[in-house]
Amino acid sequence: MKFSVEEGETIEACLERIRQAGYEPTRRVEQPVFTEENGQPVPTGRTIEFDAKLAKSEH
Fold this sequence. Notes:
Protein name: NETI motif-containing protein
Pfam family, one: NETI
Strand order of the largest sheet: 1-3-2
């Protein structure tokens, strides 16, 4: 399952949301976001996404 850090959300808040959903984060992927200005790509931000797997139950 994939979880994205939402706009205005901290990484820690996203990780907590993942755990609350019953998953464990396994990998973090960051990608730059570009916009075009004067015909040239300009970095304007980034997206952060976590891959997650179901957490093991402790029963």
